[in-house]
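Quick illustration for those who missed Monday's session on complexes.
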Amino acid sequence: MLIKGRGMKVWGSDGKEYLDFVGGIAVNILGHCHPKVVVAIQKQAQRLLHVSNLYHNEQQVKLARLLVANSFADKIFFCNSGAEANEAAIKLTRKYARENMPGNRFEIITAFNSFHGRTLAALTATGQERFRKGFEPLVPGFSYVEFDSLEVLARSITDKTCAVMLEPVQGEGGIRVPSNGYLKGVRDLCDEHKILLILDEVQTGMGRTGRLFAYEHYGIAPDIMTLAKGLGGGVPIGAMLATDKVASAFQPGSHASTFGGNPLTSAAAVATIETLIEDGYTLDQCRRMGEYLVKGLGGLQREYGDLVTQVRGLGLIVGMELASECTPVVTACMNRGVIINCTAGNVLRFTPPVIVQEKDIDRLLDTLDFVFGRLS
Ligand SMILES: Cc1ncc(COP(=O)(O)O)c(C=O)c1O
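Prediction with pyridoxal-5'-phosphate bound:
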């Protein structure tokens, strides 16, 4: 059981210290208990914990303004998790299509290996059979295409398609970074067919890739984007961002959430985003540390070519694909005081906070070196 955290470190109930390269699976973007986030929560807890969305609250408005000022979006809907943000995106897309697209367009194309959450529509959007199995009948109106293939996507758009929904880098699917030009090509296809592009930045958003939002790497903007995980720096908050044009399909009463944009969680999110933007070093640091990590892991790949098949990543969302199942490596690292995580069965996932330093990465690399040495 983990009971305490500070920066890159967490401590167990037995007093053991760990270096944390999971970061709550891409949640603790500024590290554990970042002082600015903690102070913002403490101050807000003494001022106002909750009011209904029947009224504006200071922190929610501040957060919405910050997100609008720093993204493509004009309007924001707040909720509590990534799945909920994606549900909102799916509902908004359907309503927009019904009111603005010719014919009967309701189908959303997503990618194989994607992950969009565990609620029923988000689960249906998820292009992985193993998550959907047993929950049928699923929600109608979704189809799946190979990720990173413009040719396949172009062939799959029909007169029923209203949107394409993608993660800029697939996270749960094994840290898959698309080729240069893919997302720009997807944007062009969406424009050509007058359909929407939804980007699920639940895992890649909030500085994770070295830019505030991953779409910025590709010189494009989506029509709708979803956020959660890093948004609150450790507290549960999600958001759906959209352009005015698309958001206008939602009228008061179309969609809502009791806790969405709650003053306490919004205060934490304001502190998180302000720290990321104002301490501009954090995003630079993310880019530099991401390169350092990928380089170091690449060295291990060369040394243990029989165990490691590929290293890939963007900023601080990094994966190391192994030739076999990765649980033994995760367990061995944990025993040596380093927490890492496994996704897609054989991919070690590293999602440390942007405050990670070279010395932390060196310790991770030494630990992996030791563990691989024992396994090979
Ligand atoms: C890309 C992506 N979308 C959505 C989700 C679901 O988010 P949540 O668990 O907050 O519902 C996740 C969670 O891993 C995710 O990685």
